[in-house]
Design a protein that fits this description.
Elements: H1 3-8, E1 10-14, H2 18-25, H3 27-36, E2 41-45, H4 51-61, E3 66-71, H5 73-85, E4 95-100, H6 106-109, H7 117-126, E5 129-141, E6 144-150, E7 153-157, H8 158-171, H9 177-190, E8 194-200, E9 203-215, E10 237-243, H10 247-252, E11 268-273, E12 275-280, E13 285-288, E14 291-310
Amino acid sequence: MSHSKDQKEWLIIVNPNAGSGRGEKDWDKISDLLKKEEISFTFKFTERKGHAIRFTIEGIAAGYRKIITVGGDGTLNEVVNGVFLNKVCSTTDISLALIPVGTGNDWGRMFGIPLDYKKAISIIHEYKLMLHDVGLVSFYDRSERKERYFINIAGLGFESVVVKRTNHQKDRGHSGKLLYFYNLLMSLISYKNTKAEIIIDSEKISADVFSLNVGNGRYCGGGMRQTPMALPYDGLLDVTIINGMGKFEIIRNLKILYDGTILQHPKINGYKCKNIKVSSDSVMYAEADGESLGQTPSEFSIIPEGIKIVYGSKIIP
């Protein structure tokens, strides 16, 4: 691929299953809109988990430096991981753009990238770039330590149980805005808090953890605001720990998970840090950008200005 071509042409990675199969169904409409905007591209359809990671690594090796994700937050997460696993160029040589398909659009919401395809594509055409921090989480899969990059929000505890349940149902073809909320309520019934030792930068705390969210972004789970003050370009992780809250208290306070006031509750603590380590008495499961991972002990850290993204509007602190 010639050098001039690779700077202009986009690699588009499409998740055909995103949004209950809308990725596949709407692709013709999306590609027509891209051609109208004279955006030149080649595209690939993912067929299984991990595929977008591989396509990203191969695409970068073939000379692509601009990648569009057509799908949800999970596909975007795989592309980010592919960028960080590439051996060819610096991660900041890559520009990432998103055409959201699906229900959540938690990451895109932060940058004014709407679910309307035409508007999302005009944002790509405008090509406004900013540097964006990237998170890294380590966890255990049985006895093996593994790592995963994330662009939006990762977490431990209750959140991960809901994510696991939701992903299981998505794999069986269920989807929709209410699915996550339904799983949230169902998971509450069986969930128990976990005693954990947490080191935030160098401060040690003990907590009876209901959930622990580590945010680079602000929204998760289809509009929940667990880390409502996070900024994706401040070089810091926002951590929200729900500590010692029982399930009835959680149910009574459900609205604070959505309305941005979560940090005002006396049993919920917020921190800003560069690193957080968590070990727990019984196993806590981890998730990142809505992808189910392994278990504690876990560590979260931040890579400031790790990647370039195309945005519509910016959050003002």
